[in-house]
Amino acid sequence: MNREDIMSQMNDRSREVFQRIVESYLATGEPVGSRTLTRTLSESVSAATIRNVMQDLEFLGLLNSPHASAGRLPTQAGLRMFVDGLLEMDEVTNQDREKLDATLGSNDRDVGVMLDRIGSALSGLTQGASLVLAPKHEAPIKHIEFVSLAADRALVVLVFADGHVENRVFTPPLGQTPSSMREAANFLNAIAVGLTISELRGRIAREIKSRRQELDVLAQDLVKTGLAVWENEGEQTERLIVRGRANLIEGSDDVEALDRVRALFDDLERKRDIAEFLELTDAGEGVRIFIGSENKLFSLSGSSLVVSPYMNSDRKIIGAVGVIGPTRLNYGRIVPIVNYTAQMVGKLISDGG
Fold first, then answer.
1. Which end of the chain is more exposed for a tag (fewer CB within 10 A), N or C?
2. With contact defined as beta carbons under 8 Å apart, do 306 and 330 qualify?
3. Distance CA 268, CA 236 (A)
């Protein structure tokens, strides 16, 4: 059931009860009981009536009860519903604005140092952990190297045409070996010279699309004749299953077509792996909120992330700032602060630090 469907099943009373429960939870972290709500609702209703409303909200998946006799808490779906549809944003206070602006008051023009100060100020203001992703280097690439550190950790060394060198640790796609990483690096170095990271990512995407189209054409006849069938077609795990392999021995044309399909499919899978090596960046603007398991990084800790990208003077996303904290963050206050900080950093970068 989507947000619109759920909202359509809520009247003014149930919407207010839900909003009061979430706001109380965000402020105290404690379950809210029906008797407490009788003192805060805009209309005078009995505790029994409120309990019925709470049961309806629980049925919709918006609330749950930690104990049989306790009050209610919002679920992750309930928090998402509140953030998307009922959250009231505060204005950034003058005091918060002044503390953030003060980080730019130094004569130190080192962007890294300044971002560290901004991150410290953001953490102090929100009482959460700050996240500051430094600007991505957009100079043309000269050389790429992948180094395997462990089964689940690898290092990419990026050498840019302007002499800048970056080392980034990342988690490689499953099943990658040192030899496959060397193969990926060789392929990238053959096409990457003169391209920025963003341009290289686009080139890889076009390669995947082109090879996929070629694969579809070659596989079409095999599938039509029943010699082969797609499994999980269109998905990341798709594969071509060949039937009646003994029959192929008699028809050399089919054997050649099958060999071409296999070669193309192997090539497609390699390019998909290579594409995963390149750091992905969301293209959307504005503040985004990830609650609990919506972000795989926080699926176990139950934390939330409020993050906003910042842009350079060409309106290209080059980094991000954010706040990590418990799911009961004061979203109404923190979202505007994160947004203001992202705009401030973007202006700093655009003005040349």
1. N
2. no
3. 11
290 shares its domain with 175: no
- pLDDT tens digits for 117-156? 888 899 899 888 887 776 666 678 889 888 888 877 788 8
Which residue among 250, 277, 304 closes a domain? 277
How far does the chain reach from its first CA to its final CA, in angstroms?
Answer: 47
Residue 247 half-sphere exposure, CB side, CA atoms within 13 Å?
9
- Structural domain tally of the chain? 3
Arithmetic mean of pLDDT over the chain: 77
Residue 96, SS3 per DSSP: helix
Q: What is the DSSP string of 249-307?
A: TT-HHHHHHHHHHHHHHHHHHHHHHHHHHSPP-----S-EEEEGGGSGGGTTTTEEEEE
Question: Residue 114 is part of which domain span?
Answer: 94-136+282-350
CA-to-CA distance for 215 and 257, rounded, in angstroms? 10
Which run of H or E residues covers position 350? Answer: helix 331-350
Q: Are residues 211 and 107 in the same domain?
A: no
- pTM beyond cutoff 0.70: no
Length of the chain: 353
- In this structure, what are the phi and psi dihedrals at residue 302, rounded to the nearest 5 degrees? 75, 25
Residues 182 and 109 in one domain: no
Regarding whether 77 and 50 lie in a shared domain, the answer is yes
Q: How far is CA 183 from CA 178, 204, 276, 291, in A?
A: 9, 15, 14, 38
Same domain, 336 and 247: no
* CATH value at residue 313: 3.30.450.40
